[in-house]
Design a protein that fits this description.
binds zinc ion; mainly alpha; 3-stranded antiparallel β-sheet; 5 strands; two-stranded antiparallel sheet; 181 residues; globular
């Protein structure tokens, strides 16, 4: 049952580990101005996050340049953009027709995600996501093409392995969407 992933400390710590690695990369890339980056995380109060693991999701990893003061916020597999819900919740709750759709309904119920929020996420998948520069650039790597009418499940099922592994790979794939360019 994939809603159990939300209560699986191992899976959630893995997401944190990936974000930490992405942050290490951002820091070693440095600022385009040549300055050093200093840690300046944003506090987050995520919704859809089990109490026991909330500490792993209470900040968004970010840096500030010591010279030009510009921000460098790292790509993330824990958060999808500025949404207050975890990226995993956005994925799980948006799925309508897939083997996990029963779990999706449970996730929505368990986390008390308002119906209008779920409706907004679903229309984001169908109307906004297909037009994002990231998807426009990367969709060609999927053959046959991913059916955009059935996003996100048509995309989830392109990542092989267990449900946990396909969701993890999808979050990694979607990480450019977690930062503004
Ligand atoms: Zn700088």
């Amino acid at each position: 049952m994939c809603h159990a992933l939300l209560q699986n400390p191992k899976f959630l710590s893995l997401l944190l580990q990936i974000d930490t690695d992405l942050a290490t990369q951002t820091r070693s890339d440095g600022c385009p101005c040549g300055g050093n980056l200093h840690r300046a995380d944003y506090p987050r109060k995520p919704k859809g996050c089990p109490k026991e693991v909330r500490h792993a999701f209470d900040s968004r990893l970010s840096f500030c340049c010591g010279v030009c003061r510009k921000r460098a916020t790292c790509a993330s597999v824990r958060f999808l953009g500025r949404r207050v819900y975890l990226g995993l919740v956005v994925l799980l709750a948006s799925v309508r027709r897939w083997q996990i759709s029963a779990s999706a309904a449970q996730v929505v119920q368990m986390l008390e995600v308002p119906q209008r929020t779920v409706a907004r996420w679903r229309s984001w998948w169908l109307q906004i996501f297909p037009a994002t520069p990231m998807w426009v650039a990367d969709c060609a790597r999927f053959m046959p093409p991913v059916c955009s009418e059935h996003l996100p499940h048509s995309l989830i099922e392109r990542f092989e392995g267990s449900t946990a592994s396909s969701l993890l790979h999808l979050l990694v794939f979607l990480r450019p969407l977690s930062v503004r360019h």
